[in-house]
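Posting here for the record, re: S-adenosylmethionine.
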Amino acid sequence: MKQGILNFFKKILNYIEPEGIPFPGSIIYNKIMQNFDLYDLLLHKIAKSDLISNIKGTILDVGTGPAYLPIYITQNNPACKVIGLDVSSGMIRLASQNIQKANLLNAIYLKKGNVSKLPFPDQFFDFIISTGSFHHWKLPINAFNEIYRVLKYNSEAWIFDAINPLPREEFLELCQRFGKLKIILFYLHTFSEPFYEPQKIYRIIQKSKFEKGELELFSILYRINLSK
Ligand SMILES: C[S@@+](CC[C@H](N)C(=O)[O-])C[C@H]1O[C@@H](n2cnc3c(N)ncnc32)[C@H](O)[C@@H]1O
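Prediction output follows.
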């Protein structure tokens, strides 16, 4: 019965917007993010990493959602410009409100578009990042090829998402620090698109123009490091 109701809502959402998180999912996601201290801490940590802190050019954030990452990046590094891309119009509207509230309209630009067909010229970006969006991409190899195309030579792309399964030691440590409920809820949030296992990720990378890449554990997430 419960599964039937979930499938019904999934069908409606897929009809309204076949990819991404449409309205009203965008509002729910934004509310969850405002109260998910662990994830917020991770976004801050990513934004303050040495590499991102020193970028002077243009960064692309793929599947930007409510745009918290671009906000943290530009607050920490006012020398860079960030373009947040999302396939969902609902998310773009919400991101725009959040950017306006943060008073960063002149540093962050938003673009509606799909990662499988990026609306940018070749070699346009100095760095590409994505958090929590990869498991939604319907054509992951195409997506990586598009990221490769728009990335400048000698530049990097970091793709963060939740690891499946999370190593037991990490899981226990995180439960102790942030509470079991939050960590379990985080894993349950993808009822339609499950997180990838490492072997599957390596296969996607090998089939893409990047050919090689590394996976590094980063709290409840992993980071895929891709270089061009
Ligand atoms: C779970 S949210 C993550 C948002 C944000 N990056 C964060 O870390 O909070 C995933 C986002 O990816 C977007 N998305 C999903 N598939 C996409 C695609 N094919 N192209 C661009 N954006 C996509 C969704 O609309 C959603 O806003």
